[in-house]
Amino acid sequence: MFSFGTRNVGIDLGTANTLVYIEGKGIVLREPSVVARNTKTNEVVAVGTAAKEMLGRTPGSITAIRPMRDGVIADYETTVAMLKYYLGKALGTRGAKPYVTIGVPSGVTAVERRAVIDAARVAGARDAYVIEEPFAAAVGAGLPVMEPTGSMVVDLGGGTTDVATISLGGIVSSRSIRMAGDKIDEAIMTYVRQKYSVLIGEQTAERLKMAIGSADVEASEDMEGTTARGRDLVTGLPKTIEIKASDVADAIKDVIAEVIVAIKETLEETSPEIAADVIDRGIVLTGGGAQLAHLDEVIAEATKVPVFVAPEPLDAVVIGTGEALKSIDVLKNN
Ligand code: ADP
Ligand code: MG
Predict the structure, then answer these.
(1) Where does this protein hold ATP (predicted)?
(2) Using CA positions, which residue lies closest to atom 20 of ligand 1?
């Protein structure tokens, strides 16, 4: 069916991270979704990890951009540049153009979906197909999505948290809320500014979250704190402060509460049969946010349903898009 050299590629174009999967090879690339450009010439200066280090540290001549916001394309040109770079890096410049499947959050508009397909084509895809991210995440987490049984997945990314129940190959109920990693980082920045009068950067906030963050305020009382550096708002000078684990837990508890509301609402919308299946099989957490300490326990407590973190939470969506490549002929005919 395919001409020699045609390759199928799955892409997780996330707000925080982009991953590329090549059929037959597996995951070949994991990089932050960040691009640094020269502000005068518009030339791309760095992409991925190197560009992420520049965030918040650029001189006037360079700007570091996260082209995806809230799970969708916010800066089309930069998204194309990033995809082109990553496809080149993953596949090399020779060979036939690849067919690509890309994950998009559930509930994106037709225009947003179109933009993703166009961006992939302009970046060098022979053709592109989209797959709903929670579905891809469920496939990647190994849930029995094609069977007549209800599965539930919660994908906590940088821009959105996507919640879905799935049965017989389709999404039964879903929610996509703009409450995820970025909102958690912002909440930490705000909290530190208000409590300590110190301004910390986004990257520092993210590091605090990963190092000492907890979804459970009570449990955080027994966790170790750490230090953070920022700018003292009173003196205007750099300052190092001690941050307690309970500070971070306190800062982020409202975002966690919203995620729990979305999960409960999604459960309420399913049929009793699917709700019963979910009680039996539990809820599976994917995405980077699934790694937040005590998140699984807090969700289990609030929903009275067992909760599991997927084995490789950051890889679930791209593995799912990779699996979807096996049925790309079906997608092509749609
Ligand atoms: P996206 O699909 O939107 O690109 P990812 O699934 O790659 O997002 O997850 C990235 C998000 O997960 C970021 O907001 C990051 O800060 C967060 N994250 C990564 N590791 C952890 C951790 N250990 N604890 C809490 N959040 C984490
Ligand atoms: Mg994601």
Answers:
(1) 15-17, 158-160, 206-209
(2) 288
Q: What is the DSSP string of 72-85?
A: EES-HHHHHHHHHH
Task: State the pTM of this model.
Answer: 0.95
pLDDT tier, 71 (very low <50, low <70, confident <90, very high otherwise): confident
How does 134-152 read in b/e, with b if 16+ C-beta sit within 10 Å?
Answer: bbbbbbbbebebeeebbbb
- Residue intervals in the chain for CATH 3.30.420.40: 8-135+316-332, 148-179+252-313
- Ligand 1 pocket check: which of 11, 17, 55, 252 to mutate, most ligand atoms within 8 Å of Cβ? 17
Q: Which ligand is nearest to the CA of 157?
A: 1
Whether the CB of 14 sits within 6 Å of ligand 1: yes
Residue whose CA is closest, atom 8 of ligand 1?
157
Per CATH, the number for 148-179+252-313 is: 3.30.420.40
Tens of pLDDT along 267-321? 999 999 999 999 999 999 999 999 999 999 999 999 999 999 999 999 999 999 9
Other C-beta atoms lying within 10 Å of the C-beta of residue 266: 22
181 Cβ closer than 6 Å to some ligand 1 atom: yes
Residue range 181-251 in CATH 3.90.640.10: yes
Tell me the C-alpha distance between 309 and 23, whole Å: 25
Helix (H, G, I), strand (E, B) or coil at 161: strand
| CATH no. for 8-135+316-332 | 3.30.420.40
Residue ranges for the binding site for ATP?
Answer: 15-17, 158-160, 206-209
In three-state secondary structure terms, 295 is helix
Please check the confidence at residue 324 and state whether its pLDDT lies above 90.
no
For residue 16, the ligand 1 atom closest to its alpha carbon is 4
For atom 18 of ligand 1, the residue with the nearest CA is: 288
